[in-house]
């Protein structure tokens, strides 16, 4: 079957990046889709498409300004969809090439905040969801990003409901305690290695 793609996702503040780092420390190649999307935004093709769709007001010094783009898309589902239509196909192509580089691996992990929302979960052999109670997630994001509760809730509103994600996931890591979450991740790692 070749290299299996394992999806790793979780809502904002769930700790999915912490878990991605932990899987990486176990020797699993991890593709951070959100980081790659940020880089892709500055490639010439994407720059031109963003300019066509959003205009000069989201640019600073000839390049898309992520903060300005965020202000436009976070309150406007149509604009968010347009941005995703520019970025996601490019991320998908980049990821496909990345998987080819790791074809000797039994499995790789694709970490993506919007794995479900983008539809890319359908390409995954198994899905790991990292979750935590909403109040804890809000607190983490407020502290990490130095933003208000309202701003966190606004970001959360662009993501699927946790219950819906849980129903589509093969493994769930409840990340209220880091050591317990790491233990669960290690169990999943050992199980995936047997496949």
TrEMBL record:
Record localization: Cytoplasm
Top EC class of this enzyme: transferase
EC identifiers of the protein: 2.7.1.24
Gene Ontology BP, a term: coenzyme A biosynthetic process
Keywords assigned: ATP-binding, Coenzyme A biosynthesis, Cytoplasm, Kinase, Nucleotide-binding, Transferase
Pathway membership, UniProt: Cofactor biosynthesis; coenzyme A biosynthesis; CoA from (R)-pantothenate: step 5/5
Keyword DNA-binding: no
Ranges in coiled-coil conformation: none
Catalytic reaction equation(s): 3'-dephospho-CoA + ATP = ADP + CoA + H(+)
Molecular function per GO: ATP binding; dephospho-CoA kinase activity
Function, in words: Catalyzes the phosphorylation of the 3'-hydroxyl group of dephosphocoenzyme A to form coenzyme A.
Family: Belongs to the CoaE family.
Name the record gives this protein: Dephospho-CoA kinase
Gene behind the chain: coaE
